[in-house]
Amino acid sequence: MVGDSLIAIVLFALDVLVYALFVAFPVPDIATPPWYVGLPLIVILLGVVPLRRKYPLVMAYWVLVWTIPYVAAGFGDVAFSVAVVSCIALYTVVVCSGRRQAAFYTALTLVVSLTHQILQYPDDWVVNTVTVVLALALCWVLGEFVGARRAYQAEVEARLHLLENERHQATRIAVAEERERIARELHDVVAHAVSVIVVHADGASYAVRKDPDLAERAIGTISDTGRSALHELRRLLAILRDDDRDDAENRVGGEGARTPQPTAADLVELADRVETAGLTVRLDLDETIDELPAGVSLGVYRIVQEALTNSLKHAGVGTRAHVRVRWDRGAGRDTDHAGSVHIDVEDDGAGRANPVLAGGPGAGAAREGPAERAPSAPGGNGLIGMRERTNVHDGTLTAGPAPGGGWQVRAVLTVRLGE
Questions:
Q1: Mutual orientation of helices 294-314 and 267-276 as an angle, nearest 10°?
Q2: Half-sphere exposure of 245 (CA within 13 A, CB side)
Q3: What is the Cα–Cα distance from 316 to 323, expressed in whole angstroms?
Q4: What letters, b where the CB count within 10 A reaches 16 and e where it falls short, cover 54-84?
Q5: Does 293 score more than 60 pLDDT?
Q6: Cβ neighbours, 10 Å, residue 369
Q7: What is the distance between the alpha carbons of residues 395 and 91, in angstroms, rounded to a whole number?
Q8: Exposed e or buried b for every residue in 124-145, given b needs 16+ CB within 10 A?
Q9: CA gap 87, 96 in Å, rounded
């Protein structure tokens, strides 16, 4: 409103100046109306200009109505504000109210102007009318241009707002997915490491007096497992740090540098760690397992790790597990699809909970009575983690009691080159 108020003030000042000049230097053919009639009409006519953006139609028709007494009083000859304000009104209607309202207002303005020209200037009404039409046309074109620019700017702002919302939503989804991934990794690392540590800690406390050598070996296994778990946790925490800082640490080989994640080739080492915890593991691995893509290889390792951890925790003492990993390349050797990996993990447990992890008195005692196998419980984090890893690679997962007793986990992961 400040700019529009300045326009009204400038027009009023110019009208007063022109009126004063006509009073000081009269023109024979032009009658000068009294000031007490003309000045109030000028104020009334220009008073709505500051409100033109907020009430464009009200301002336009107010100007059109008060143009009639303004011209009838003779101020059309000694002031020019009525012509300027009429053009401003049409421009405002085109920009703010649309073409339909502008067309109706233009038609009424032409009727009023034509009537005025015919009655006051019968000899020159054609030329004057053409001049008015050209002025109104110029205002219309200017209003169309400004309106189009404003519509374009509004569309750009709307798209930027939508893009910002989409980017914010994508960021939230990415953060949620990263949290889920880190949660799976933490579960895999912590669950396996803690299971091994608890088994050996209770076994060491049970054998510390009867078999100190056995207790010493158990403590050594605890130490190695703890270091390995700590190493994995540091790697996961490094993911949460600033990327630039991580890159710098990786380049200089700092302590916080990220290390390669486990792969299917590390299953032998995993089996050794599980065996030291009391679960006999037999591995049957495909010779080409080292050639698996990194993503699939990590998924294979984590699924086997979770399955063996569940067997260690729930299958009972003296359980034996059999792990088979086979890469069926199929007919997709020459395409991006490189077959599928079949993972089978079976144990011959009797369904009794591990006495140590279940809170038993020692490594050699067994809890009386059968216990529910945790992997069969819906919603278990371990089973959910395995299922999510198979879904990532368009695979399938089944887990449940084996036909001959014990428990089995079977997963199939689709292998795609470049993963």
A1: 10
A2: 8
A3: 18
A4: eebbebbbbbbebbeebbeebbbbbbebbeb
A5: yes
A6: 8
A7: 65
A8: ebeebbeebeebbeebbeebee
A9: 14
pLDDT of residue 366: 32
**pLDDT single digits (tens) 324-379:** 999 887 654 445 567 899 999 999 876 444 443 333 333 333 333 333 444 433 34
The helix, strand and coil proportions of the chain, stated in percent and rounded to the nearest 5, come to 65, 10, 25
Rounded to whole angstroms, how far apart are CA atoms 207 and 212? Answer: 6
What's the pLDDT tens digit per position in 168-199? Answer: 888 888 777 767 776 777 776 677 777 778 87
Residue 11, C-beta contacts closer than 8 angstroms, at least 6 positions apart: 46, 49, 81, 84, 85
328 φ, ψ (degrees, to nearest 5): -95, 100
Q: Which residues contact 131 (CB under 8 A, 6 or more apart)?
A: none
- Predicted local confidence at residue 294, as pLDDT: 77
Kindly report, residue by residue over 197-238, the tens digit of the pLDDT.
887 787 778 777 788 888 788 888 888 778 777 777 776 666
Strand order in the sheet with 407-416: 280-285, 320-328, 337-347, 407-416, 396-401
pLDDT at 324: 93
How far separated are the first and last CA of the chain, in Å rounded? 61
Residue 238 tokens read as: 């490094």
pLDDT at 345: 93
Question: Token digits for 380?
Answer: 């278990």
- Residue count of the chain: 419
Residue 397 token pair: 């997962």
The C-alpha R_g of the chain, in whole angstroms, comes to 44
Amino acid identity of residue 228, one-letter, is S
Answer whether 386's CB lies under 8 Å from 399's CB.
yes
Closest Cα partner for 401 from 366, 374, 376?
376
